[in-house]
Amino acid sequence: MMARKQAGKWAKYGKRYCGDWEGEAGLKDWVRRVPGDDSKAACRYCICEIRAHHSDLVAHSKTKKHKKHVALLSQPSHNAEKHPFEFDMRHSLQLEKQVSFEAEQDSFDEFKHTEMDESVNVCALKLAAHIACHMSIFTVDHLGCIIGGIAEKDISLHRTKCSTIIRDIIGPTVHTELLRDIGNGYYSLIIDESLDVSSQKQLCLMVRYFSNKLKCIVSSFVGIITLTASDSDLITEALLSFLNENKLNIKKCVGIAADGLSASICGHKNSLLKKFYELNPCGVFIKCICHSLYLCLSRAIDVLPLNLEYMISQTYLWFSHNTFHQKRYSELYAAINVGENALKMLQFTDTRWLSISPCINRILSQYDTLRLHFQSVKDNEKDYSAELLYQMYSEPVNRLYLVFLQPLVQEANRISKLFLLETVNPVKVITELVMFYQILLQRIVKPSAFPTWSSIMNYDLRSKRNYLPLSEVNLGQVFLSELVDAKLPSQIVEVIQMKCRDCVLELVNQIKIRLPPNVHHLESLSTLNPSVVLSPLRPAFLTLSFLSLYRGDHLKLEQQWRNLDTVSWTNTEDSQIEQFWVEVAKHTDEVGDKDFVELGLFALALLTLPFSSAAVEGTVSQMNLIKHKLKNRLQDSLLENILRIRAYMHRNKICCNQFQPSKEMISLFSSEFYAVANSKDNTQGYDDIF
Predict the structure, then answer these.
(1) Element (H, E) at 34
(2) Can you name the residues that pair with 93 across neighbouring β-strands?
(3) Contact indicator for 217, 578 with CB cutoff of 8 Å
(4) What pTM did the predictor assign?
(5) How far apart are alpha carbons 137 and 128 in whole angstroms?
(6) What are phi and psi of 458, to 5 degrees?
(7) In whole angstroms, what is the distance from residue 142 CA to residue 157 CA?
C-alpha cells in the first residue's frame, strides 16, 4: 500500500488522544483510551477503534450502528444504577458478544445491500458523469446529498469517491470502448503542444477515424502525454510509447495534422515529423489550413499602417474594464440611434483565428458614434488615450483601410469556418480555397495569365509583366466609392491604393507559400466524390495520386475501382461522400462476400485526413477551463479521464442526461471498488482529488 500522504499544515504534528473528551457531552458515555496507542480511541458500545480525531469521533457518534448500540445498551435491564462499568461481568460479556454479532450482521447487510441495489450504483455513475461534463468535483459533496434526499436513496457520493469513479471506472471504460471501435483500422492523429497553468508541457492527442459503431468519421480525444522537454527525440519516444500502450499501430496512421508552428514537431531537420516518415513512409503531414490562413492574413495586414491594429485593440480596452465609459457611450449611442442599444466592442486577439474580422465589422458599424464619444471625453476629461483615439477616428485614411480590409477578412473567415467542420467535403473546400486565391489574383493580375484551373496555383508571382496598372487594380467597389467621397489629395490617394494593392499581393504570396501541399491533398481526395468515381470519364486507376498510401493488393483494388459503376448505389450525391463509401464497404455480392470492402475502407481511411487542428485546439481550451489557477493541483490522470468522458458524450451526440452506464461500468462498481476507494481515501491527499 502506498505511504499515506499527510494533508494540511498541522499534519506534521500528528493527532493524540485527549483526556478531555471523556468529559465532553456526546462523547463521555462511550469514548475510551486504547491502552498503549494514543493515536486511537475506542467506543465501548460498538467495540471498535477510531482515529484520535475529534471530527471522526463526532462522525462516529452520528452513525446508525452507534445509535442502535447505544439504544440497546441503554435499556433498563442492562443499565447499572451507578456507573456503566458496574455491570455484572458475565452479563456484560454476553452483551458484548451480542453487540459484536449484530454489528457483523449489519455490516453484512450493508454489503449485501450495496451489492444488490444496483440502482444506487447507476445513480452514482450518472452523477459522476454529470460532474465530469459540467462542474467542479467539489460540488458533489452537497449535490449527492441533495439528490439522495430527493430520490430517497442512500447515495453516499463525495469528491474522493466521485474522483475515483471518474478516474478508475467511467474514464477507462469509455477509452477502452474508443480503442475497440478503432480496432485495427486506419486513423489520423491531430496533435498540439500546450502549457498548462502549472507550467507543465503537454502533448494533446486527438484521433480521427471511421467508426464502425457510428458508421461515420469522428474526431475524438484520445489522451494527454506529459512532456519533460520539447526535444523531438523525447516527444517521438513518448508518442510511440503512448501508441503502443493503446495498441494503435503506427503503420495504420494515415496522417498527422498540427498547426505547423513547433520546430520540434514539424521541423525540416530533426523533428517528430521526420521520425514519423521513417516509421511510416506512406503517412501524410498536413498543416492546419485555419492556422495557415490566419498567418497569411496577418502578414498581409502588416503591410498596412501599424496604427490600425492599435486602434482596434485600444478601442476594446477603453470600454472593457470601465463601466463609466460603457454607460456614457451607451447613452450617446441611444441618443443618436433612438430605440437601439450599443453593441459591445470585441477583443482582437492572436489566440483566436481571424478574430479581427468581427472586430472590424463592429467598429465600422459604430464608427461615427465612437468618434463623437472620444471627442467628448477628450474635451471634458483631457484624457490622452481618448485624444489619441479621437485623432485616429478623425483621420479618414484609417476608415478607408478598414473598409478595404472588411470584405477581405470576412471571406478568409468564411473559408476558415469550412475547415472547422468535422465532416469536410473535399470538392467543396478545394473549390472555395482555390476560388479565393483566384479572386485575389484577378484583383492584381490580368485574367489571361491563368487560363486553366491548374495554372492558377502554378502562376509565378515573381513575373510582374502581367500585373495590372495601379488604376485598374480591383480594391473593392465600396472602398473605391468611399475613396472618392473622401476627396483626399491625389498623392495620398495613390499611397493608399499602393498599400492596399501591396496588401493583396502579400496575401497572395503567403497563400502561395503555405497552402499548395494542402491543395494537392484536397485535389487527390476530390477524386473520391461519387460524381467522379461513377462518371464514365472517371480517372484511370494508375493516375490516382493517393495510390502511394495503399499497402495492400493493388490489382484487387484496381479491379474494384473498375467495377464500381456496375452496381446501382443509393448515396450518389457529393454531399453524401461518407455514406457512399460506407455503402461501398458494406456491399455484398450474390454469395455474401464483400466485393468492394478493400476499396471502401481505403477511401474512408483517406477521408480521415484532417485539414484543421480546430478539434485539438478546442480540447486544449477545455483543459485550460478544467485545470485553471484555482485548480492547479488537479492530477493529469483525472484531467485526462474527464476529457475522455466529454469526448465520449460528444462523439455519441449525447449529454449527461442521456448517459447510461454500461454493464462493464456497473460490474466495476463492486466491493473491490469500495475497498480501493477507501484505501485512496486514507492514502491520497488533497492534490489527488482537486
Answers:
(1) none
(2) none
(3) yes
(4) 0.74
(5) 8
(6) -90, 0
(7) 9
pLDDT band, very low/low/confident/very high, at 2 (cuts 50, 70, 90):
very low
Query: Nearest Cα to 345, choosing from 326, 331, 373, 372?
Result: 326
CA 624 to each of CA 134, 167, 351, 634, 686: distance values in angstroms, whole numbers, following the listed order? 14, 19, 13, 11, 20
C-alpha to C-alpha distance for 131 and 642, rounded to whole angstroms: 9
Please state, as a whole number, how many other Cβ atoms lie within 10 Å of the Cβ of residue 542: 8
pLDDT interval class at 81 (50, 70, 90): very low
| d(C-alpha 151, C-alpha 129), whole Å | 18
Beta carbons within 8 Å of 52's beta carbon, 6+ residues apart: 15, 16, 17, 18, 38, 39, 40, 41
Measured distance CA(516)–CA(456) in Å, rounded: 11
The conformational region for residue 659 under phi > 0 = left, psi -120 to 50 = alpha, else beta, is beta
Written as one string, the DSSP assignment of 470-491 is: GGG----HHHHHHHHHHT--HH
CA 396 to chain centre: 43
Query: What are the DSSP calls for 338-355, one per residue?
Result: TT--PPPPPP--TTSTTT
CB atoms within 10 A of CB 659: 21
What are the residue boundaries of the structural domains of the chain, listed by start?
A: 15-116, 300-396, 415-519, 550-606
Q: Cα(626)–Cα(644) distance, rounded to whole angstroms?
A: 13
pLDDT tens digits, residue range 372-430? 999 999 888 878 899 999 999 999 999 999 999 999 999 988 888 888 777 767 767 77
Phi, psi of 353 (to 5 degrees): -60, 130
Of 488, 494, 453, residue with least CA distance to 475: 494
Helices (H), 321-422: 323-336, 356-365, 367-381, 384-394, 396-418
Total Cβ atoms within 10 A of residue 612:
28
Grid coordinates representing 534 are 461513377
User: pLDDT by residue (tens digit) across 618-665?
Assistant: 888 888 888 887 777 788 899 999 999 999 999 999 998 899 998 888
Read off the amino acid at residue 578.
E
For residue 33, how many other CB atoms are within 10 A of its CB? 16
